[in-house]
């Protein structure tokens, strides 16, 4: 069971050991990149987990269902976009937040919209593009992204069976 659960890190460590044995310089680079990534992740995740804990305690399930649940409609879509766009940090920070949203009863398509917004419509990125690439580019990219995120979210929601979505929610419960 432990081997199955940690198979990816074990395979990665074995691959790095083989790489190190074959080419020490390449192995050193791999170790350096891995440790840098690990420290970057460890510098972000504590803040994410603190925010998740606060959201889990402070936001009642009924409120989450009202604003992001099955019957939230366009309001849920807009809130999901705002939540995702207003965030900072790398995309892997979105998944623990998404798990808490699932626990609190958010609709699956709103979760997908949140993750899509986190990855592509962040306010700081929009401001950078607006200033450096021009308003026409920034607004065009934002509009295309918003439309694309909505289409993809609803397409994924329709393509997955109810059972598959329920399994995803069950995994989120164990988080």
TrEMBL record:
Entry similarity comment: Belongs to the UPF0718 family.
Keywords, comma-separated and alphabetical: Cell membrane, Membrane, Transmembrane, Transmembrane helix
A GO CC annotation given for this chain: plasma membrane
Descriptive protein name: Predicted permease
Membrane topology field: Multi-pass membrane protein
Lineage: Bacteria, Bacillati, Bacillota, Tissierellia, Dethiosulfatibacter
TM stretches of this protein: 38-58, 78-101, 108-126, 138-156
Subcellular location, record wording: Cell membrane
Species the sequence originates in: Dethiosulfatibacter aminovorans DSM 17477
């Amino acid at each position: 069971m432990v081997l199955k659960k940690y198979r990816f890190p074990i395979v990665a460590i074995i691959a790095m050991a083989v790489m190190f044995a074959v080419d020490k310089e390449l192995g050193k680079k791999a170790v350096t990149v891995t440790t840098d990534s690990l420290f970057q992740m460890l510098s972000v995740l504590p803040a994410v987990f603190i925010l998740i804990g606060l959201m889990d305690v402070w936001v009642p399930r009924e409120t989450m269902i009202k604003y992001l649940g099955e019957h939230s409609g366009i309001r849920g879509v807009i809130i999901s976009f705002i939540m995702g766009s207003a965030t900072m940090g790398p995309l892997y920070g979105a998944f623990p937040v998404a798990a808490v949203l699932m626990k609190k009863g958010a609709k699956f398509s709103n979760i997908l919209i949140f993750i899509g917004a986190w990855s592509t419509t962040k306010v700081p990125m929009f401001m950078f593009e607006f200033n450096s690439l021009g308003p026409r580019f920034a607004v065009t990219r934002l509009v295309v992204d918003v439309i694309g995120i909505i289409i993809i979210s609803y397409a994924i929601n329709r393509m997955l069976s109810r059972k598959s979505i329920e399994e995803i929610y069950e995994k989120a419960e164990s988080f």
